[in-house]
Amino acid sequence: MRFAAGLLWDAAPAAGAGAGSAHPAPPGEHPDHERRRAHLAAFIEREFAGSLHRSPFDGRIGTRRRIAIAAAPLGRLHDAARELAGATLNDAVLSIVAGSLRRWLERHHGPLGDVRVRVPVSLHHEGDDAGNRDSFFSVRLPLGIDDPVERLRAVNRETLIRKEEHDAEQLDHVAAALGRHSARLAALVERIESSPREFAVNVSNVPGPRHPVSVLGAPVEALHSIAEIGLRHGLRIAVVSLADHLYFGFNADPDLVDHVEWLAEGVEDEAAALIGLSGAD
To answer: What is the pTM (predicted TM-score) of this model?
Structure first.
């Protein structure tokens, strides 16, 4: 986003250029060792317990890719999430992605258990000239919940815990400490956290320009981000905002994830359903 502001847009207002969906505060102090141990144990349980279900997108990654795109109104989705569940825009993004995954699995006659997704989080602060500093947390998306509002509330409860406990920053500290003490242990943890048992899909949400932009006098009508999939992760979802819209980019290995366009259609339908249940429509 910093490159785009410096090289592409004719005139861009100052905007956040974070690489993730949240900017957590530093973790709080713990008054005693017992609380610190309990905090660490709960963190490890949330982030490293793994999934009870095999990822529906796990498999050998080939060389072919299929791309699909979708869009949703940012302002109305934000207002609907706040009105219906006291949730954030990022919660709404995860909830409508969960609804879309649910629809895709239903059409493929797959089980509707929970699916763990990885949510990248920016630890980059405005005014910091350093490169991207990213971490993440993992969260279960409740695909078994059909009701959009109940699903949104369930997602909000999960993300709220991770934000209040500063899981993304804790993970950054743990990774840095392991790297200082043991390269082999750090590599082992990295393999664990990149396993398809640890998370099924990476869902990133990057804030883009807050106002309309243009290139050489031509208005930019849409801005989609396409991120590469990882080993044994046949699907990747990247979200970016521009002015009052969210733009979704789906990248998939078609041998593992066919009809990726169904996922894009599902996101738009789920966003419309959530907005329709609120006064934001």
So the answer is: 0.80
